Amino acid sequence: MVHVSILQASELKKFYGAFCALDGVSLSIGQGEHVSIIGPNGAGKTTLVNVLTGLLSPSAGSVTFRGRDIARLDPVRLSRLGMARSFQLVNIFPQLSVRDTIALAAISTLGLGGRLLSSLQKNNAVWDIVERVSALFGLSSKLEQPAKNLSQGDKKLLDVASAFALRPEIILLDEPTSGVSTADKSNIMQVLVRAAKETGIKAIIQVEHDMDIVFGYSSRIIAVHEGKILADGSPEAIRARADVMAAVVGKL
Amino acid sequence: MSPPEAAVLISSINILVSGVFNAAVLFLVSAGLQIVFGVQKIVNLACGSFYAIGAYFGISALAWALRLDLPVALFIPVLIGSGLVLAVVLGPPVERLLRFIYHRDEHFQLLLTFALVLIFEDIIRIFWGASPLQINNVYLAFGDLRLAPDLTIPNYNLMVIAVALAIAFGFGWFLQKTRFGKMVRATAENASMCEALCIDLRKVYVVVFTLGVALGTVGGALVIPATAASLDMGVELIVDAFAVVIIGGLGSMPGALLGALVVGLTRAAAIWLYPEFEMLAIYVIVIAVLILRPRGLLGKAAA
Amino acid sequence: MSVASLDRPITAAVRQRSPWAYAVPVLGFSFIAAFPLIAGPHYAILMFSAMGFAICLLGLNLVFGYTGLLSFGHAMFVAIGAYTAAYLTAARILHLEVILLTAAAVAVAAAVPVGLLCIRYVRIYFSMLTLAFSMLLYSFLYKFYPITGGDEGLRIKMPASLLFDVSRMDTVGILTGPFYYYVLAMLIALTYLMWRITASPFGLGLRAIRDNQQKAEYLGVRIQRNRLIVFVISGVYGALGGVIVSIPVGLADPSLAYWLQSGNLVFMLLLGGYTNFFGPILGSVVFTFFQDQLMSYTEYWRLTFGIVLAVIVIFLPNGLMGVLDPRRRWST
To answer: For residue A233, what is the domain's CATH number?
Structure first.
């Protein structure tokens, strides 16, 4: 498969004072990939994801999205460029309903955020997107509920669903199945993969601890250890690397 | 020294003395604000009200002392005592009221203390009436310190500065060295952890709040030989106390000291030099600090 | 944000608006319209002021109820409105339309720089910063006697209007007659405008900012720009309301900008209920009449207000509208 690079990181470094969280990370994510980022706690996975998605700015190095430098871009502009993310700790709007949460994303997608006087209720384009995305994620029956009343699994789905409603090209998922029962995990993953196909997402990057999911769904695995990339390859290649398995799985 | 130079020096010393005197009282009230914020995380708009009611009660106490013909040397202890008595009477009930909203949105906390401001203003009216009250001759009874033919410093100012410093050090010692003080600091850092360690949070909260009230009431009492007690004084002081706390940093005791000095000296200087800019100068500094260094000069709280 | 704080399930709009949803505004405005005919002139003028405060509070609630920023300096815009009216009427520019437009323009000119500085901060710092700016205006109005009239304030003459001729009427007649309905029409129009804003995509963005700022940003909501827009709009509403409330008084004085006035505005808002769209209007009407009655019964009205506010804060945080409509069906 020809590697059409969408997201590229080059020699990323991130220091917290004297502590080095990322020590020269380079990677290139291409179209059609479902990449899992694995590594023990404290290895730098979340820092890497945060730098890639604009939450943190790198101390050194560059991140480009389709050739554009996005190192210090704020999340709003990143979402316009086509990058979205979900969060490890459930990040939703407690007081807003499911419908309104997804609608918010749809508003951004349709560029309506600055419309002060137009009626939201009458805007069919927005509710169209809401219906389709909520159907993809199995939330159609819960549209009116305030997000704080949802089950943990549904909250995670909502977090991801709202990110999907932005119609990004690339999406970063930070442990989308954590804190969820094992039975729900595979359900969530199947929903995610199907939704990605339906909404035209070109690449998925997933920070993941659950090795079953990693090996079950990824097309490529990147192992991070102590701020560096330990290994980067197909699931079979990674499985064969005993040092990676020991470093990552052993410490879990 | 030539006459103009001497005049400048005299003016400067006068500004310094009145500025530091203001700062001393302001420090006491702001320290009360700080400690309540530090521990209970509540911004107490009513701290100015405690200052005002302390002033009025101080006048009553001094009037009583005068009637009993007590020696002048006892006046300051009487004032401090009256402030403490008032604090012990008012502190616990008010804290009990605030307990209703400890876990609520901080907007509601601000509004409840605003309700207290309204309530206290009328309580003062009920007990002492609406006109300003003044107690005469006490200030002068303390005498002056004559440094030079043209330069005298009122002794009362110096004594109040000394008292404020003593309280500041005492407070610092209390927080650093005593067991209860350590509990207070621990609660300020992490209240839920303290609860898990079986520290009685309720007791800490009541004591801390009463201490905060006491700092306000004592501050108010100490100021009344020098100024009149009026209904406005609390409301005006609150803005100054906020300026102090913002400049010094929310939650920081040394910050309260520094902020009080900045505000006290700026006011004193402005009154002597550019009276129109007296209030403006303070607010400009406040706004500048909030913009350039929102944590305050010595603060720890995150913006 | 604590769970017990802003306790209302908010939906963007009601899917099918039942006829009852229109009942509140229709009944409410009809009552206000009929009011001068059933109550005496004193109370009608009181309602005139209440309408002015209602306009102020609609703006304040946009910043507080919808965007989650508690401004303790909103009084500065009321003062801007009043002083604009004073300067213009003193310069013999008497038409209310001109005064209102100018006040709005001045409010924008003030709100943009102040807003740019304040909206970067949240929670307690926003409140303190807005309080500081309001007090800055207060001290300026108080001290610079030659320009501002100092603590005596500036007189405001009765304005005229481009729409009708009031030159032959007395003050009471004007305030309970043509101007009364003029202001009511203004209130209705501004209420409708605010409704459109809160029911718009922009409005949903505001609630998202209030609920979870970080997530809102990740869903493409421009936090600082939206906050600034909201602050400026609230300032305009505040100034327009300031013009209205100062007309019966006939005086613009510095105490309008004092932080206690800002506190009163917030009190009114809480009384009416900040979680409901119509709360501000109800709050200003109830407060104005309550204050009037209370002041004639006792000189200790502050004590009463303080107790009422404490009760609301502790037991009835959603105010009167929260009591009247706990389901909050049409709250946006």
So the answer is: 3.40.50.300
β-bridge partners, A7: A29, A65
The structural domains of chain C, with segments of one domain joined by +, span: 29-258
**Cα separation values, A235 from A201, A239, A243, Å:** 21, 6, 14
- DSSP string over C27-51: HHHHHHHHHHHHS-HHHHHHHHHHH
Separation between Cα atoms, residue A107 and residue A126, nearest integer Å: 6
For residue B115, the model assigns a pLDDT of 94
Q: What DSSP line would sit under A118-177, residue for residue?
A: S-STT-HHHHHHHHHHHHHTT-GGGTTSBGGGS-HHHHHHHHHHHHHTT--SEEEEESTT
Neighbours of C234 (CB within 10 A): 29
- DSSP assignment of C149-218 equals -GGG-EE-PPPB-SSS--TTS-HHHHHHTHHHHHHHHHHHHHHHHHHHHHTSHHHHHHHHHHH-HHHHHH
- Give the separation between CA B184 and CA B176, rounded to whole angstroms: 10
Nearest to B121 by CA among B187, B55, B31: B55
Highest mean pLDDT among A63-72, B103-112, B215-224, B293-302: B215-224
Q: Provide residues of A within 8 Å CB-CB of chain C.
A: 74-76, 79-80, 84-85, 87, 91-97, 99-100, 103-105, 107-109, 112-121, 123, 126, 144, 146, 148, 159, 162-163, 166
What span, in angstroms and rounded, lies between the C-alpha atoms of C69 and B128?
38
Has residue B292 got a pLDDT over 70?
yes
Q: Give CA–CA dist A80/B199, Å, rounded.
A: 51
Residues of A whose CB is below 8 A from C199: 119-121
CA–CA gap between residue B194 and residue C243 (Å, rounded): 53
A96 phi, psi to nearest 5 deg:
-90, 150
| Whether residue C1 has pLDDT greater than 70 | no
| Complex ipTM value | 0.86
Q: How far apart are alpha carbons C28 and C54 in whole angstroms? A: 12
Output phi, psi for B37, to 5 deg.
Answer: -70, -40
> Terminus-to-terminus CA distance in chain C, angstroms?
20
What are the φ/ψ torsions at residue A106 (nearest 5 degrees)? -60, -40
Parent domain of A54: 5-248
Backbone φ, ψ for residue C71 (5° rounding)? -90, 120
Q: For chain A, which residues score pLDDT lower than 50?
A: 251-252
Q: How far apart are CA C303 and CA C79, in angstroms?
A: 25
Distances in Å between the alpha carbon of B267 and those of A173, B24, B34, B157, B233?
Answer: 56, 13, 21, 16, 15
Q: Are residues C133 and B303, on separate chains, in Cβ contact within 8 Å?
A: no
Amino acid letter at C294? Answer: L
The residue to which tokens 């605030």 are assigned: B98
